[in-house]
Amino acid sequence: MEKREMLYEGKAKKVYKTDVDGKYIIMFKDDATAFNGVKKGTIVNKGIINNKMTSLLFTLLEENGIPTHFEKMLNDREQLVKSVEIIPLEVIIRNVAAGSLAKRLGLEEGTKMNKTIIEFCYKKDELGDPMINEDHIYALDLAKKEEIAAIRDYSLKINEVLIKYFGEREMKLIDFKLEFGRFEGKVILADEISPDTARLWDAKTDRKLDKDRFRRDLGDVEETYIEVLSRLEK
Ligand code: 5GP
């Protein structure tokens, strides 16, 4: 397996072609951004932690029947994945009100809700990833009805598996963002699951164990990423 030219550089990852058909390599960077790139910084060794965490969680999800792009970890910062075509949606799953939902609806962070919420955002940095609904998705042909049905089913199943897994490790899964891609005609989970893309609170103290520590200048950012990985590896 040989790494070939870079296909894409995002805020937290680079994607490379390989000499094998249908396989890409993803490299996880330490770069951290917030508020759509307005705040920039580095979280030392974040790339290593997010690579490990995503590998661990995607393996767990595969074991629970969720198809993912993950193939194997190659080294500290790189993993081999299936070469999906990313569906340009950010799928946000919310169990507890926090972040932009709390702000938009005037709710206190931590407010319990009667139901898990799934939101869709149009993945477009220059627009700040605006929230859209299923009508927009079909009107703009971003995804087909069957694909959205699969994305909803997988998202709820992933939520169930992760709530249990994090719960057993003394963490509450408040909300998280998923991205899906198309591979050989099917929808599969892509991207990453890490403290960059999920809000995790300590089960006893509600201490924030995620990227909000960087976004909101709460301190102990690196230590917290290490802490989450060590809890997950238990
Ligand atoms: P919110 O909409 O409250 O800012 O984010 C909801 C959840 O989705 C959070 O767990 C957050 O980390 C994740 N999320 C939403 N948009 C993005 C994004 O553009 N990048 C990353 N890394 N995570 C996001």
Overview of the molecule:
- The protein has 234 residues and is α+β, with helices and mostly antiparallel strands.
- The chain has two domains: 3-82, 2-Layer Sandwich (Phosphorylase Kinase, domain 1); 85-220, 2-Layer Sandwich (D-amino Acid Aminotransferase, Chain A, domain 1).
- Helices cover 30% and strands 35% of the residues.
- It is built from six helices and 14 strands.
- The protein has helices at 46-63, 99-105, 134-139, 145-167, 212-215, 221-232, and strands at residues 3-9, 13-18, 23-28, 31-34, 39-42, 70-73, 78-82, 85-86, 89-96, 112-122, 131-132, 171-183, 186-190, 198-202.
- The strands form three sheets. Strands 8, 9, 10, 11, 12, 13 and 14 form a seven-stranded antiparallel β-sheet that branches.
- A hairpin with a 3-residue loop joins strand 1 (3-9) and strand 2 (13-18).
- Helix 1 (46-63) runs parallel beside helix 6 (221-232).
- The longest helix has 23 residues, at 145-167.
- The chain binds guanosine-5'-monophosphate.
How many β-strand runs?
Answer: 14
Which bin fits the share of residues in helices? 25-40%
Alpha plus pi helix count = 6
CATH superfamily of the largest domain: ATP-grasp fold, B domain
Task: Write down the domain tally.
Answer: 2
Rg, nearest Å: 17 Å
The major pleated sheet works out as: 7 strands, antiparallel
Q: How far is the N terminus from the C terminus?
A: 32 Å
